[in-house]
Specification:
mainly alpha; 11 helices; 298 residues
Length: 298
């Protein structure tokens, strides 16, 4: 930023902070919708494709088997409603965080409890948005980092719930990183392209090595695409830091789940959330981390 921009930002810091906070909360509310609906949209699409492939005679929309898949269901339709009484959520019941507090965590009609996860996702997204602009500023880097942050939150939650990392998010994220770095937003285009390639191939190689040695699949292809996207955004030099941080975060959270939730050590644990957390930490703090551990940033 120029000296004038910096002075303007310092003068109106509380205002800008409030704007970013509420923008993050609103996006967090939308992320809740994406996390719930996108996997169901994928399942409906798979069901429709399988039906058309295996039972073409049942492709008539009037049949019961396909009536479910032909009912409109996307990120906008149907309107948000209570899963218990089907009460349609009105606008004043959908204000991030505040509506939950005003309604005391219950549906206004049937008084059934609303999951605490909804305001938590909204609040965490708002907080992370504030941290991003605080660390990276109101610049092209900061604003693009907000987009990456929101996408990583959605991917982490979807993978945690379903062990899926949708191509609808990971692939546009990778191409978006390459496009941004065409203008040297986070790194150079060459480093971005190499980062995408190295990110994908590194986990792809580990996947096949593990499968050849054990006969088991240690991770999914979505993990390869997510690391490729992070490499496209942050460059190949950031990959060692992301991989090491994801391993540390995964170990700590995995041990915590086993100790406090009684998870079996053989239960599959998605790797995507740990990659997302490590990618976000690298996004906002790679320079500080590299100053203490220079071998992590090549």
């Amino acid at each position: 930023m120029t000296d004038f921009d910096t002075a303007l930002f310092e003068l109106y810091r509380p205002f800008f902070g409030a704007v970013v906070f509420w923008l993050g909360a609103i996006v967090g509310s939308f992320i809740n919708v994406v996390v719930y609906r996108l996997p169901k949209m994928m399942e409906r699409d798979w069901h429709s494709q399988c039906t058309q492939l295996l039972m073409p005679e049942k492709s008539d929309p009037a049949t019961t088997s396909t009536s479910i898949t032909t009912t409109p269901f996307n990120l906008a339709i149907p309107a948000s409603h209570c899963p218990h009484c089907q009460h349609q959520i009105r606008w004043w019941e959908n204000v991030p965080v505040l509506s939950y507090l005003c309604l005391r965590g219950k549906c206004s009609q049937c008084k059934q409890s609303i999951s605490l996860r909804y305001p938590l996702v909204e609040g965490v997204t708002a907080l992370m948005s504030i941290i991003v602009v605080w660390c990276l500023g109101f610049t092209a880097v900061g604003f693009s980092a907000l987009l990456l942050t929101w996408a990583l939150i959605a991917l982490a939650l979807i993978d945690f719930d379903t062990q899926l990392l949708p191509d609808d998010i990971t692939l546009p994220l990778m191409w978006g990183g390459l496009l941004l770095n065409l203008f040297f937003i986070h790194t150079s285009l060459a480093e971005s392209v190499i980062g995408a390639m190295a990110g994908y191939l590194s986990l792809w190689s580990i996947y096949w090595l593990f499968k050849l040695l054990t006969g088991k699949e240690g991770m999914g292809y979505g993990d390869f695409k997510l690391l490729a996207a992070l490499g496209a955004w942050l460059g190949w030099q950031s990959l060692p830091m992301i991989i090491l941080l994801s391993s540390v975060v995964g170990s700590l959270i995995g041990i915590g789940l086993i100790l406090f939730q009684g998870r079996n050590s053989q239960t599959p644990i998605p790797f995507g959330p740990y990659l997302a957390i490590a990618g976000w930490i690298t996004l906002i703090g790679r320079d500080a981390i590299a100053s203490y551990f220079p071998f992590l940033y090549l």
